[in-house]
From TrEMBL:
Official protein name in the record: Dehydrogenase
Superkingdom as given in the UniProt entry: Bacteria
Source organism per UniProt: Kumtagia ephedrae
GO molecular function annotations of the record: 2-oxoglutarate-dependent dioxygenase activity
A Pfam family per the record: PhyH
Signal peptide, first to last residue: none
Family annotation (InterPro entries): Phytyl_CoA_dOase-like
Taxonomic placement: Bacteria, Pseudomonadati, Pseudomonadota, Alphaproteobacteria, Hyphomicrobiales
Length: 301
């Protein structure tokens, strides 16, 4: 495992590795540990990095299936195995890749992947009853060198219209070592997210209901993000960004208040990062109606 001091980490043009003291590593958990111990760790940390919860072979098979759908779009390097997810250096063909992506979002194959028995059974236990998987589910690929990365945010900003008993499952679809830019978490930030949300709730109190739940009202940033400048955030809140070498089969659960972001994919061999993030909640709780349709480019979220 390489030292954090020798890793090259950037996000939206800001270098995280200039301050190694502001970097740390996520703590892994074994899904077979007693549930009360895992639940206590989740409450303490704001996340659970569950090693090998899913079948590695099944995750890699879905990765191959996913990239196989892009065979005629120019996304993949010619002559390569779709399972490797090697990006082509040539321009993509007229937006066809985007069209294919949103077809996959609506596909039975993707729905089936998100409903792996190991996952929903764990969430049923973790939530203390039947769990509900939100229909709006996101799956994204990131090419090496893509200039933009997801900025720092917490998920409740986009899900204020329902229960707060939410759990996000972030699933790397393939191995995602630190250099490929998987999710990074601001250490102990779930308490900070709660404080920020309380401040926004107070500021939003006089807004109409539809604006009050929006991530894009006049009291929020235009993206719903807290910041794109991750190093500045670490200094401002006196915390570390936690990174990890994720593997196919891993699942990270995080609180709706936990602040997280992504870094640039710096893979030297052209390997694309692929991941999906999906949300669970108790089935009996109020559901944010905006999340009851498939993810689409114009859904306003």
């Amino acid at each position: 495992m390489p030292s954090l001091s020798v890793l090259s980490l950037t996000s939206n043009g800001y270098r995280l590795d200039d301050s190694p003291a502001r970097l740390g590593r996520l703590t892994a958990s074994d899904p077979a540990e007693p549930l009360d111990r895992l639940a206590a760790r989740y409450e303490e940390q704001g996340y659970l990095w569950l090693k090998g919860l899913l079948s590695r072979d099944e995750v890699l098979a879905f990765r191959r299936y996913f990239f196989g759908q892009f065979a005629t779009t120019g996304l993949l390097a010619p002559g390569t195995d779709p399972g490797d997810g090697i990006a082509s250096s040539a321009p993509e063909a007229g937006g066809n890749a985007r069209k294919v992506l949103f077809e996959i979002v609506r596909s039975a194959a993707y729905e089936s992947f998100c409903l792996k028995q190991q996952l929903w059974m764990f969430l049923d236990r973790f939530l203390g009853g039947m769990s509900y998987l939100h229909k709006r589910k996101l799956i994204r690929y990131t090419k090496p060198g893509d200039a933009s990365s997801t900025g720092a945010h917490y998920d409740l900003v986009y899900l204020r219209g329902g229960t707060r008993r939410l759990v996000t499952a972030w699933i790397p679809v393939g191995d995602v070592p630190v250099r490929m830019g998987g999710l990074v978490y601001l250490e102990g930030s779930h308490s900070l997210g709660r404080r920020l949300e309380d401040e926004f709730a107070s500021a939003n109190a006089d807004l109409p209901p539809d604006e009050r739940v929006s991530a894009f009202n006049r009291n929020m940033s235009e993206t719903g993000w807290i910041s794109k400048n991750l190093p500045e955030m670490a200094e401002r809140f006196d915390r570390r960004w936690l990174v990890a070498d994720y593997e196919a089969g891993d699942v990270v659960l995080h609180s709706p208040y936990t602040i997280h972001a992504a870094t640039t994919n710096a893979d030297p061999h052209g390997v694309m990062r692929l991941s999906t993030d999906i949300r669970y909640q108790p089935v009996a709780d109020d559901i944010d109606a905006r999340w009851s349709s498939h993810w689409s480019p114009d859904d306003g979220l």
